[in-house]
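Support request, please re-run this one:
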Amino acid sequence: MANQPPAIVMQEVTEPQELAEARARRNRFNRNEAWLQARAAEIYKCHRGRYICIAGEELFVADTPEAAYASAKSAHPEDDGLFVRYIPKEKLPRVYSD
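Re-run finished. Output below.
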């Protein structure tokens, strides 16, 4: 029993209010992501080996993802489009695939 993968449940959301909330949350995420991309070179250069969280188009840096998230959520409790990212210690080539 312990070796079985967890069940995945999918459901279609059609409620207009839920869809509007999801679109608004995605728009907030997109704004935070665009803010990071506009400043990525400097942020990555200065904060290697640490966690960053972007909320309210503002940077929060910490040694753990929980601390970065807590700082961001404290400053911007209304922003549900925030995200946390780890910046690797070394700048290395990375391969991404679909």
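The CA atoms of residues 55 and 74 lie 10 Å apart. The chain has a mean pLDDT of 94.
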